[in-house]
Design brief:
Layout: E1 23-26, H1 28-45, E2 56-59, E3 65-68, H2 71-77, H3 86-98, H4 103-122, H5 127-148, E4 150-151, H6 157-173, H7 181-193, E5 205-211, E6 219-221, E7 223-227, E8 241-243, E9 246-250, H8 270-293, E10 298-301, H9 307-315, E11 319-321, H10 326-336, E12 353-354, E13 357-363, E14 366-372, E15 380-386, H11 389-411, E16 414-417, H12 421-434, H13 441-452, H14 454-463, H15 467-480, E17 488-491, E18 496-499, E19 506-508, H16 509-527, E20 531-534
Parallel strand pairs: 5-15, 9-10, 10-11
Antiparallel strand pairs: 1-20, 2-3, 4-16, 6-15, 7-14, 8-13, 9-12, 13-14, 16-19, 17-18
């Protein structure tokens, strides 16, 4: 009809909330993408599990080469950038810091949990249902571990030491030092037993590395040991050993320093210049006299001790060492009872420490200062020998894991069998429990039970065994008589299914409890994320904290317009 204006629909204004270029992914596809990223990480370290696990050679951006089969080390060096997959890196580090061992197991378990429920996610099962089922299954599994764990009475010293040695040997089975585990097991247990049994501070166990020699040349020093620092002329005239020495630790520079470039001193007479020089000498001699007056036999300092002070101490039969690292100086202070002093003013004998014996010894191609019989805090130092530098680094990581395991076994005397035995028993228990639960939770707990089998399955794969045959045997044994066959697992040495508790393949129960807790928390965290918002990296140099480049121009050029 003429005159009637055509109705035009109103356009809705576009609302822009996020910065241009921001990437947003959400919904089930995003959840499945995160699960796939985590499974890719698990595939990387899958082959490192167990006594027959393979090593990984990793070259970082600085061209540094690392050879290791330690899960936490590998995860840290992979430099994972996918946000969800970084959760696995975090749980590996947490497991390493908390109990020291089981870092590969916790990552594999978390990945397998996600793999088992991926099908349920695709079918539309709510993530919250899966999370609820995982947490319920984790509680059941942890309570079952506590029921099965065997406790060793600490009053039986021989039996308790045997427990510690078996736990240390089990942690070394999958490491580079597995072939020398008898030698290192005794060393690790001795090191932990020399600590204060109430605190068990692992920082009081120093590990020093000297290239050359064989692994069997490694020694355990009952006290503090550190490499001889740089020394000036006069050092060879100093005594190299003392019985019951008095030790002073300083953070003072005992050296004559040249004047600063911008320093200026105006004098009118030669005598005034001489007075300035004399004052400098008087300052350092006053410091040296104050140290000698305390009766100290050994002087250690974080800062340099110059040739004048070195000769001064040599003339008075005093040993000195400058440029001592902070960690070594702190351990000496904790062990001998002295305290680091920042000035020599008011220095008295009460600030000094002592030990039974001090000496300087040649170990390999290097000289070491040894403090033995420290009364204040029990401490020790492990001196490692070996061929290649990467080899010694891996031995150090292996010993750190074993030390942490023994510490945990001292604090918690409960142990379980390793080799996948406890995982198979938990899997059987959860399957039976799931049949009594109604609804979707039954499926989730059954998936959790199947995921636990990843540990014995992967042990078989890495050892080259028939995985199907071994897993079916283990399922049958655990189902036939749970009480009799509860400790049956994969025996790598005999290549069969056997009672691993009777063969002393022991692990602290805390390792398994912490691994299950961490893996479930990581899996629940990943399942609870349904959207990822990634901001585009800013091109503005000021946004990244870098100063903007100044305008280019020649020096002294006239500016136009002025």
């Amino acid at each position: 009809m003429a005159g009637r204006r055509q109705q035009v629909p109103m356009m809705q204004p576009q609302v822009i909330v996020l910065k241009e270029g921001t990437d947003t992914s959400q919904g089930v596809p995003q959840l499945l993408s995160n699960i796939s990223a985590c499974l890719a990480i698990c595939d990387t370290i899958r082959t490192t599990l167990g006594p027959r696990g393979m090593d990984k050679l990793i070259v970082d951006s600085q061209k540094r080469v690392t050879i290791s089969n330690d899960g936490a080390t590998i995860m840290k060096l992979l430099e994972v950038v996918q946000p969800a997959a970084r959760t696995l890196v975090d749980i590996a580090r947490a497991q390493d810091a908390e109990v020291g061992d089981g870092t590969t197991s916790v990552v594999l378990l978390a990945g397998e949990l996600l793999k088992e429920v991926k099908e349920h996610v695709e079918e539309g099962v709510s993530s919250q249902v899966i999370i609820k089922g995982f947490r319920k299954a984790a509680d059941l599994a942890i309570n079952r571990i506590r029921e099965l764990a065997v406790s060793v009475d600490r009053s039986d010293k021989a039996g308790f030491r045997e427990l510690l040695e078996k736990c240390a040997a089990t942690s070394m089975n999958s490491k580079l030092i597995g072939s020398q585990k008898e030698f290192f097991t005794k060393m690790v247990v001795d090191a932990v037993m020399r600590l204060d049994q109430d605190e068990l501070n692992e920082d009081m166990i120093g590990i020093k590395k000297i290239p050359g020699g064989a692994m069997q040349d490694s020694i355990l020093v009952d006290g503090v040991a550190f490499k001889k620092s740089f020394s000036y002329a006069g050092f060879e005239q100093q005594p190299k050993s003392f019985d019951s020495p008095r030790i002073v630790c300083l953070n003072v520079e005992l050296e004559l320093k040249a004047e600063k470039d911008n320093a200026e001193v105006r004098v009118d007479k030669v005598s005034e210049y001489q007075a300035i020089v004399d004052a400098e000498w008087k300052i350092i001699f006053d410091k040296l006299d104050a140290i000698v007056a305390t009766g100290a036999n050994v002087v250690l300092s974080r800062l340099p001790i110059g040739d004048l002070a070195t000769q001064y101490f040599a003339d008075r039969n005093i040993f000195c060492a400058g440029r001592v690292s902070k960690d070594d100086l702190d351990r000496v202070c904790e062990a001998t009872g002295c305290r680091t002093q920042s000035t020599t003013t008011g220095l008295a004998s009460k600030h000094l420490g002592s030990c039974e014996r001090f000496e300087e010894r040649q170990i390999g191609g290097q000289r070491f200062n040894l403090f033995k019989g420290c009364p204040e805090a029990k401490t020790c130092t492990i001196v490692l020998r070996g061929g290649a530098e990467q080899f010694i680094d891996e031995v150090e990581r292996s010993l750190h894991d074993s030390i942490m395991i023994v510490r945990r076994a001292v604090k918690n005397q409960n142990v379980v069998a390793g080799g996948g035995a406890i995982e198979m028993e938990l899997s059987r228990y959860l399957r039976e429990t799931a049949r009594q639960i109604e609804g979707k939770q039954q499926l989730i707990i059954s998936a959790f039970a199947k995921a636990l089998e990843i540990i014995p399955r992967q042990l078989c794969e890495n050892a080259g065994f028939d995985t199907t045959d071994f897993i079916t045997q283990l399922r049958a044994r655990h189902a036939q008589n749970p009480e009799r066959f509860k400790w049956y697992g994969v025996d790598i040495e005999e290549e069969q299914v056997s009672d691993l508790f009777a063969k002393f393949v022991w692990e602290p129960a805390l390792v398994k409890i912490n691994a299950i807790s961490s893996a479930v928390e990581a899996a629940c965290l990943i399942l609870s994320v349904d959207e990822t918002v990634t901001s585009q990296q800013s091109q503005d140099p000021m946004a990244s904290g870098q100063p903007a480049m100044p305008p280019r121009g020649g020096r002294g050029m006239p500016m136009r317009g002025r």
